Model the fold of this input.
Amino acid sequence: MFGPYRYFCPSCNLESDPFFRRSKADDIGEEHRDERHGGLHPVGECILTSGEWRAPRGGERTAVIAFAAIMLFAFGGRLLGLA
Done:
């Protein structure tokens, strides 16, 4: 399934903010397990997906802008016959 992704811990009834990448939600889960559960996996913990989207933040925003700029230049060059 396609994001956004949230980490959920049923033991603490904790749900993270949504993230564009699943790996970020996994990282949040790992940090939570290390801090609150001594690295052990609570029964029922999971990564949730939902239909809620958010704007990319920080490094994600930079990556999205860079990708959009590259695509714009590539397609713009083709349209103008430069590539």
Summary: The mean pLDDT is 84. The first helix runs from residue 22 to 36.
